[in-house]
Amino acid sequence: MRIDIITVSPELIKSPFEHSIMKRAQEKGLAEVHFHNLRDYAINDYGKIDDMQFGGGAGMVLMIEPIDACISKLKAERDYDEIIYMTPDAPTLNQRTANNLSMKENMIILCGHYKGVDQRVRDLFITKEISIGDYVLSGGELGAAVLCDTILRLIPGVLGDETSALTDSFQDDLLSPPVYTRPADYKGHKVPEVLTSGNFPKIEEWRADKAYELTERVRPDLLEE
Ligand code: ADE
């Protein structure tokens, strides 16, 4: 998989890709991530990439020309399955979207900034818009990092134990059951007996019950879907 991230703040987004699972995905040769500074495509020598909005109103808007220049250059080099725009006014990211995107070959992710991008960018170039939640970030960079983390960990071979992604919360629209490790008794607080019983059918049943109970209590909306 190849991901090209277009941003006005490459430094803001690079570091999560240099650690842990996202680093491992790249080291194993299973993912390639490239960062493109929108300012390198500015319309003048002063690095202009944004302007005031027509009709008045606070906040600068990212212009179409630099974005077009960057996207066109990338598209001339290879085909892209998706050109994604990170923005709060879009459908919210969920596990289904992550699963779906983890099967793509090449993707561009455009990070919004300031007041957003000229609507014509969205109309002409973007194939998918994603929000990471009902709150406003200062830019799309952190959202893009979250999106990439959810995608890259799903690529077969990235996680050491492949089954662990499959038992994550949300994978069956259920939250994960509680987990415990040693000691079995911490100052009188004991691990549920079934987990140390060695009775695996019973353990599975307990986990399924707990997952359902937890989901019903804290995220009943997932059960309605
Ligand atoms: N940019 C600003 N807020 C955002 C959000 N909630 N999700 C994705 N991109 C954003």
Automatic annotation (TrEMBL):
Residues 1-224 form the tRNA methyltransferase TRMD/TRM10-type domain. Its EC number is 2.1.1.228. Pfam families: tRNA_m1G_MT. The keyword S-adenosyl-L-methionine applies. Keywords: Cytoplasm, Methyltransferase, S-adenosyl-L-methionine, Transferase, tRNA processing. It catalyses: guanosine(37) in tRNA + S-adenosyl-L-methionine = N(1)-methylguanosine(37) in tRNA + S-adenosyl-L-homocysteine + H(+). CDD domains: TrmD-like. GO terms for biological process: methylation. GO terms for molecular function: tRNA (guanine(37)-N1)-methyltransferase activity. S-adenosyl-L-methionine binds at G112, I132, G133, D134, Y135, V136, L137. It is found in: Cytoplasm. InterPro entries: Alpha/beta_knot_MTases, tRNA_m1G_MeTrfase_C_sf, tRNA_m1G_MeTrfase_TrmD, tRNA_m1G_MTases_N, tRNA_MeTrfase_TRMD/TRM10. Specifically methylates guanosine-37 in various tRNAs. Belongs to the RNA methyltransferase TrmD family. Homodimer. This is tRNA (guanine-N(1)-)-methyltransferase. It comes from Wenyingzhuangia gilva.
